[in-house]
Design a protein that fits this description.
- There is one protein chain.
- This protein is mainly alpha-helical.
- It folds into two domains: 82 residues, Orthogonal Bundle (Rna Polymerase Sigma Factor, Chain: A); 79 residues, Arc Repressor Mutant, subunit A (Orthogonal Bundle), CATH 1.10.10.
- The chain is 75% helix and 0% strand.
- It is built from nine helices and no strands.
- Helix 2 crosses helix 3.
- It starts with a helix and ends with a helix.
Length: 161
């Protein structure tokens, strides 16, 4: 947990956009890793295995009715933005605008950006991790970069830079 805990929380947060839920997922992931250690086949690194479990667990949560209900409840309950966990996730305040734009990307684009740039996985590792063709990974990465470029250019005009 000490070695991969922050990575797992970051990835979970990038999917769920909820700090508490990301921390809960992290605990669940490490419990599952412990319980299923005998199923680890050393076909990839331990980190890749842990991240794969994290991604799958997040996707399960996103599909669940209780998560959808929670998201709607939070949306209707909170009118102000809470103090930014994005700063914790991606670094200092200078990166806040970029991190907000990344979190606005569709999940499929956001996951490859996070895994490629922040977790520093190779395209091949991401392909294996998500069980997706490498060309699909390249396409999602390309589209994510284009979407970020467009939103960042728009943001700079908005701020007069």
């Amino acid at each position: 947990m000490n070695e991969y805990g922050n990575d797992v929380i970051r990835i979970a947060f990038s999917y769920l956009k909820n700090k508490q839920l990301a921390e809960d997922i992290a605990q669940d992931v490490f419990l599952r890793c412990y319980e299923n250690m005998d199923t680890f086949r050393n076909e990839s690194s331990y980190k890749t295995w842990v991240i794969r479990i994290t991604v799958n667990r997040c996707k399960d949560v996103l599909k669940s009715w209780s998560y959808k209900n929670l998201a709607i409840t939070e949306f209707l309950t909170y009118k102000q933005v809470q103090p930014s966990f994005e700063n914790e996730l991606f670094g200092d305040e200078e990166n806040e605008f970029l991190s907000r734009q990344i979190l606005k990307l569709p999940v499929k684009q956001r996951e490859v950006i996070i895994l490629f740039y922040y977790q520093e996985f190779s395209l091949e590792e991401i392909s294996h991790l998500l069980n997706i063709n490498i060309n699909t990974i390249k396409t999602r990465l390309h589209r994510a970069r284009n979407n970020l470029r467009t939103s960042l250019e728009g943001g700079m005009r908005h701020y007069g830079k």
